[in-house]
Specification:
A hairpin with a 2-residue loop joins strand 8 and strand 9. The protein is α+β, with helices and mostly antiparallel strands. The protein contains twelve helices and 20 strands. It has three domains: about 120 residues, Pnp Oxidase, Chain A; about 230 residues, Orthogonal Bundle (Hypothetical protein af1432); about 60 residues, no CATH class. The protein is about 30% helix and about 30% strand.
Length: about 425
């Protein structure tokens, strides 16, 4: 067991005798080993809990580029060791301490689980309980970008609420960082199951729709200037709701006709807030005004249809509906991402254009590696990897049969090639706890 301390190791080699006949030594190097230990740590991938352990210990050499060596005692996985094996980066949380282990690899499993990581670093920010775009383990939107975007949005929300003046330079800088993060992660798939909300609907919703709109725009191969315009508009798309009474916004029952008519004015209110601001591109302002227009002309405020609606607004509209469906609201329970995507599919050619919906589906995944799902025959499987050609048919490993009996042999299926098996729902990880001691 490692102790939390710094140890110094001196290495020396016998070189021979000096001219005066005395032995001489050559000291090669002093290596400083940083040793750390976390007790009762939770282990995450992105924002999914993998499990916990009684002790996570590691040592890292002071020289850059050398791997860290770790040891895990009392590991309890939520469902299967493979859920940990497929991870690239993991997060550790013990009390107020939070770390990220990058390029995490297991090398041995016995009484202790041992392995290496490229680095294990302290996270100074609060572990974010927010929606984040990931491709399994790789965070597409960095914590720094998340933090700066949320701060910028918070400032604007507070200014609008209390009728104060505001600047939009911070939002523009945040949009640039979002676009940069997404472009640097080209080819990454958005795992919808990993999306999470945090407190404050105005903040949450605008943030999530901004990120998702940028992601869809990237899937549509928009150039950088266009992506910035989409992102800026989407981050601000629902600010008009701040001009509507809280009694309507937070009402936990069906709105009256009068209340609904007032709610339908929020795109205009948002447009009015920003229309004279020179820091916002004209295309972003149009997005704010049109984000509730529908492809078949049944939307509001102007009942536009098809190509009359800007592409940016069509992108934001889909992101807006997806986030609204998957968020808890006073008047209804959140849909699962799977249910939400099924609803989106049913709205093609009515609410959304086929091109925008196809781009969304092409760049998203419902099931990150390590997810536990129930199949149509009631067996339980672990997601191994996603199929880019099919949103709902990933590659799986069977874990338990329909009677709940664990399957010992390795059975792998590519659901894209299976006609009889399909995913029915998410499974409950706690039903399949596996303990390694």
């Amino acid at each position: 067991m490692f102790l939390t301390k710094v140890g110094a190791y001196n290495t020396a080699s016998l070189k021979g005798k000096s001219n005066d006949g005395k032995l001489k030594f050559r000291f090669i190097k002093q290596i400083i080993m940083q040793r750390h230990e976390l007790k009762n740590a939770d282990i995450y991938s992105g924002y999914n809990l993998i499990g916990n352990c009684s002790t996570f210990s590691w040592k890292c050499q002071s020289e850059t580029g050398l791997p860290c060596h770790f040891s895990i005692a009392g590991l309890n996985c939520e469902y299967d060791m493979e859920a940990l094996l497929v991870r690239k980066d993991i997060y550790l949380r013990a009390g107020e301490k939070e770390y990220i282990a990058k390029n995490f690899q297991i090398e041995g499993v016995s009484d202790l689980v041992t392995g290496t990581a490229q680095s294990i670093e302290l996270l100074f920010e609060k572990f974010p309980e927010m929606k984040s775009m990931t491709d399994g383990e790789k965070v597409v939107i960095s914590k720094e970008t998340q933090s700066e975007t949320l701060k910028a949005l918070t400032g604007i929300i507070e200014a609008i609420k209390f009728s104060k003046s505001f600047e939009l330079l911070d939002i523009k800088e945040a949009a640039k960082k979002i676009v940069s993060d997404i472009q640097e992660s080209e080819g990454a798939i958005l795992n919808l199951m990993e999306l999470r909300s945090f407190s404050g609907y105005h903040l949450t919703h605008n943030y999530n729709v901004g990120i998702l709109s940028a992601y869809i725009g990237s899937a549509l191969k928009l150039h950088e200037k266009a992506l910035l315009e989409v992102t800026i508009g989407a981050l601000l798309h629902d600010m008009g709701k701040l001009k509507i009474a809280d009694t309507i916004i937070s009402k936990d029952s069906k709105l009256s006709d009068e209340e609904f008519e007032e709610m339908k004015q929020h795109p205009r209110y948002g447009y009015e807030i920003f229309k004279d601001n020179p820091d916002i591109p004209a295309a972003s302002k149009t997005l704010i005004l049109q984000h509730h227009e529908k492809y078949d002309g049944s939307g509001y405020p102007e009942s536009l249809k098809d190509i009359e609606i800007s592409l940016y607004a069509q992108i934001c509209s889909l992101a807006d509906v997806f986030d609204a469906l998957t968020s808890e609201r006073p008047y209804r329970v959140a849909k699962t991402p799977y249910e939400a995507v099924r609803i989106l599919n049913s709205m093609v050619n009515t609410a959304f254009s086929p091109e925008v919906l196809q781009a969304f589906i092409r760049k998203t995944s419902l099931y990150p590696p390590g997810s536990l799902v129930r199949l149509n025959d009631d067996s339980i499987a672990l997601i191994l990897r996603n199929n880019q050609t099919s949103l709902i048919r990933p590659e799986i490993k069977l874990i338990a049969d329909k009677a709940g009996r664990r399957i010992k042999e390795r059975k792998i299926f590519d659901l894209a090639k299976e006609n009889k098996l399909y995913i029915k729902s998410y499974a409950v990880p706690s039903d399949l706890n596996v303990t390694i001691r």
